[in-house]
Amino acid sequence: MSTAPATTPEGLRVAVIGTGQRAYIAEHVATSPTSASVVAAVDTTEIGRGRARQLFGDDIAVFDSHEALIAQGGVDAAIVTTPDWTHKEIAVDLLRAGIAVYLEKPLAITLDDADAVLQAAYESRTPLYVGHNFRHAAVVRLMHEVIERGEIGAVKSVWVRHFVGNGGDYYFKDWHADRSRVNTLLLQKASHDIDVVHFLAGAYTQRVVAMGDLAVYGDIDDHEDRSGQTMADWFSYDNWPPEAQRGLNPVVDVEDVSMMLMTLEHGITASYEQCHFTPDYWRNYTVIGTHGRLENIGDTAGGTVKVWNRRRTWSTEGDVEYPIAGVEEGHADADLDTMNEFLAFVADGTPTTLSPVAARQAVAAGALAAHSLRNGSIPLDVPPLDPALVEYFSSLTASTAPHSLDAATR
Fold first, then answer.
1. Are 36 and 12 in contact (CB under 8 A)?
2. Angle of helix 356-373 versus helix 387-394 axis, rounded to 10
3. What's the pLDDT score for residue 8?
4. Are 143 and 294 in contact (CB under 8 A)?
5. Are the beta carbons of 175 and 249 closer than 8 angstroms?
6. Residue 273: in which H helix or E strand, if any?
7. Where is each Gfo/Idh/MocA-like oxidoreductase N-terminal domain found (predicted)?
8. Which residues does 359 contact at the CB level (< 8 Å), separation at least 6?
């Protein structure tokens, strides 16, 4: 079990570290079934500290570094929504200080850093939760339920196409475009989908090979330093076509189109394709089993998961079709579920449905895929994780969780 911090009569005292675009997920703390409240915030910029007070009230304590927060004390848990390259240092410091951590995905931008975070949580016995919220998305739960009912038989292959229609605004106008800050969008963006591939297949990636390119945004020479801004300050659907984008990040050296192939455990295969200059924005999963296949058309409410399970020629209609529930846009419902799960885990040790091992495996596949595509598409094997860490984090994961992949026997 986790070493859960003792709560105050008012509940868990929570800090928010990083008050940029994703800090709003901390607003779910106040509505959680677990008694908790945001009492502190950290941001390295004056604008960010002002934003913290706007989001969480003037009475919270505000700091300019996570070190200052740790030195002050008085918090039980921290929600870390800082840029990706800072995750490892901040998470390790918090865990060693005994402060439970909700860490936005990806866990880290390199496999070594990901393993260092897991090691710190293991050694300190401090709760660590990685915010792979898409596991809780209605479309993913629905597809998993179809698979668990056996409607398509045993899963043999998973194909994912990710049309990132907002990619120019979301990922090429700030630090996301700089590989020294993000490594690859096969982590920042695709870690969601790699994790879902593992979830639906019931297996982790063992080998990857990839290719990709900076096909469009590398040719745009209009750049701007957007320090102090967040994505909401520049986003517009009028920023179209992609070649007409202006004000890109001063450094743009991550791929805007990429493809990776994965060999998973148990002989399962998978593919993932990501493009940041499509007009539409959604994910399409195809899962092929021994008795049929499923595919989602749309990935939020109003969409459909279709199942084909009899021989035929082509048809746009499935043999069975299931409507997707949840929100009509975005993933607010999944954010809420992940936050509730984290707070319950910290407060009373309630087992989680996703462990840091799964988050590490997503980083492993994405980071190695980036290395492959940048080095002649060489195939690379995922190195194993220390069995002691696998066993420890498995003990904190619900044994009844669907496809709990962290058992040492997997």
1. yes
2. 130
3. 52
4. yes
5. yes
6. strand 269-275
7. 12-132
8. 105, 106, 107, 114, 130, 132, 191, 195
d(CA 141, CA 138): 5
Q: What is the pLDDT of residues 106-146, one digit of tens each?
A: 999 999 999 999 999 999 999 999 999 999 999 999 999 99
Tell me: pLDDT of 90 over 80. Answer: yes
Position 231 pLDDT exceeds 60: yes
Contact 143, 296 (CB under 8 A): yes
Both tokens of 16, joined, read 């928010």
Angle at 229 between CA 223 and CA 233, to 5 degrees: 90
Q: What is the pLDDT of residues 249-269, one digit of tens each?
A: 999 999 999 999 999 999 999
3-class SS at 328? coil
Residue whose C-alpha is closest to residue 195's, from 360, 313, 382, 402 = 360
Which of 335, 338, 300, 354 minimizes the C-alpha distance to 21? Answer: 335
CA distances from 127 to 192, 235, 405 (A): 21, 36, 19
User: What type of residue sits at position 194?
Assistant: I
Which residue from 379, 86, 396, 386 is spatially nearest to 209, judged by alpha carbons? 379
Mean pLDDT of 350-379: 97
DSSP symbol at 237? T
pTM of the model: 0.93
Helix and strand totals (H; E) in the chain: 12, 15
pLDDT of 7 above 90:
no
Contact criterion met (CB below 8 Å) for 372 and 208: yes
Amino acid at 1: M
Strands 61-63 and 36-42: parallel
Return the exposure string of 90-124: e unless at least 16 CB atoms fall within 10 Å of the residue's CB, then b.
bbbbbbebebbbbbbbbbbbbbebbbbbbebbbeb
**Cα 152 to chain centroid, rounded:** 27
Q: CA–CA separation, 185 vs 190, rounded Å?
A: 6
For residue 88, give the DSSP letter: H
* Encoded tokens for 144: 């998993």
- 164 and 117 in contact (C-beta within 8 Å)? no
Residue 58 structure tokens: 């003037």
Question: Which domains, and CATH codes, for the chain?
Answer: 135-333 (3.30.360.10)
Tell me how far the alpha carbon of residue 363 is from its chain's centroid. Answer: 10
Q: How far apart are the first and last CA of the chain?
A: 21
